[in-house]
Amino acid sequence: MIITCPHCKKQHNIDEKRIPPNVKMARCQGCGQQFPLEIPREEPPPPPTPQPIAVDITPTPTPGPAAPSNQETRRIGVSLSKGGVGKTTTSVNLAAGLALAGKRVLLVDTDTQGQSSFMLGVKPKGGLTELVTGELPPEEAIISARKNLWILAGGKSLAGLKRLIDRKDYGGELTIAEALTPLEKDYDYVVVDTSPGWDPLTVNVLFYVNELMTPVSLEVMSIQGFGEFLKSIASIQKFRKEVELRYILPTFRDMRVKRGSEFLEEI
Fold first, then answer.
1. Which pTM was predicted?
2. Interval 223-245: pLDDT, tens
3. Alpha-carbon distances, residue 50 vs 35, 46, 47, 57, 58 (angstroms)
4. The CATH number of 74-266 is which of 3.40.50.300, 3.30.1370.10, 3.40.50.150, 3.60.15.10?
5. Residue stretches of the chain with pLDDT short of 70
């Protein structure tokens, strides 16, 4: 199958049978730009029409209510492209609070500063990068920080993970989702802390989480960054409608400053 990059018009010969059906984006080897990947899929044949059969209509006892199924793991990302608004503080306290409430929580740090593990007082020997690359198995990459709270640490090694994502021709935006989805069945919540800016790791988080919590400090630069972040979220939702901004958390309110109250009303 031949696909053409809409940016530089370079043609690529790919085997569509080897591309997973959940891959939505591809990266051009010529110009390095990403573009939507649309591959026609063969529709499965319709099921055969059921034939009428004779049955014995005998009253049977009404069964009781079925046992409730296990609750689906909630994926919450704490994100805003503006730095210094309290994302890591929010992530750690949200995860710790849920753990105190008896929920099993996995805190994932995707920031190269790696401050989540520092705030929890743990020193992991690996983390998210080692899990994705296979250098460490999940039971070694994920460590216990508190009762009901586990952490998958970030740190400087995430710079290498960014390069790994950039080198992928297609499916790079699903790297973190592919690593975390098999593990989330062991947890009630997965809370993901993101770094400032807009990089491949942030895009990966938005292709994994379903709910977003956005801390917004009550000052003019943060409000402007929040507006730009909403535009970026809208662009992601064109390819993944499951991600949704659910919570806006005002931070750093100074009661001595009049504009802080105005910004609070604005958001």
1. 0.70
2. 888 899 999 999 999 999 999 99
3. 43, 12, 9, 19, 22
4. 3.40.50.300
5. 40-70, 260, 263, 267
